[in-house]
Amino acid sequence: MAHSSFQLRKIRLMAIPAVALAAAALTARAQVSLTTVVELAQKNSASVQLAIADVNKAASQLSESKDAFVPSISFGSGLPAFREIGFTGSLPTIWDGSVQSMVFSLPQLKYIQAARAGLESAQLNLKDAKEQVALDASTAYVEMDVVTSELNAVHEQEQDADRLVTIEQQRTDAGVDPTASLLQAKLTAAQLKLSRLHLEARSATLAEQLATLTGLPIGSVVPDHSSIPEIPAVTARESAISTPGLDAAAQQARAKALIAKGDRERLWLLPEIGFGAQYNRNTTLLNSIGQYFVTPGNTGVLPANNFSSGFSIRVHLFDLGLRAKSRESAADALRAKVEAEQAQQQDDVEIVQLNASIRELEAEAEVASLKQQIAEQQLTSVTAQLESGNGAAGTPGAPPQLSPTAEEQARIDERQKYVEALDSGIDLSKARLDLLRALGHMQDWLNELHTK
Fold it and tell me: Rounded CA gap, 92 and 286, in Å?
């Protein structure tokens, strides 16, 4: 009994890893919603992380530009290490403190405005990066869902093709059909195998792409068709709004223009006013500097506490360096303005191209859908005739009785038209998503995802 109990415990312990592995395998192949894929892709994206770093940098630059008007306080000490000889020109201090700040500067106000525009540009770039990642993830996910359906259809085709080859082999051996019919059936099977290999390669590429986007293991993303919202049938006639990328470019151009304006104002002989205060706690330790201050009425005793404060006024009368800097910033501003305009023009052209492409793809999808419906009706007709016969055997002018191969060929053709309809549909869906992004409505798609 003890031995049996030991064996039972051993079997249970051995079964635990197997159960864990099976559970892990099931979990790894569990369906993942499109919303989850998009969120993981945005968190895992290098471009989003870089955009976040740019936002942090821009926020720091804004803070730095405003802090010029905030007093800066510093402390220090000038204690001598050895006894001084002669007049050194500096007062030994136990400690000293100073306060400095800018009080008035019109150019600095422009720099603050420029930094604020730069921060807005960085935030818009971050939004644009997230939308682009969402578009890439959505496109790959939707295509993976379609390719999965296409693979299932091709597997059914291959089964029908195998039956077709078997039937033709039997008919050829019996002398009913020529050898050419058997070869044609084998060719059909080979072509379907090639189609399956193409789809498997396409599926593997999409799996790798989704794994790279989300950071999940390769092959762990199984599409959940119910999590995919219907893609709106948008056209270029839809009300277009500016995209985050275009807004970011416009804000960047504005920031460059403000910097250029600030640099120009520094050449306008406008005063820059600053404030400063300083306190010194002097010492006579290891020095005799007090004797150099002996004058009539002055005993030469170095005062311990010393304080001074005042305003400084600076006017740039002539500075070639500032003139060169002003020309440089003006060139940067012009370049940023042209780049923003160029980006807008490219977006307009892309919208027109996508709209034309969508019209063609809609027509192709309609044709493919009608062909699939016709093939489905033909399959139904062939199946019915094979079940009931033509009912006019031996009658002059009556159609010949269908052979058993007709049904398999009809099934293969129906599945082929189904695959072609799916292909047309995915091309149309991808073009519509691209147009959504170009029109500035990508956020509407993301909002729709969160309602699924």
Answer: 9
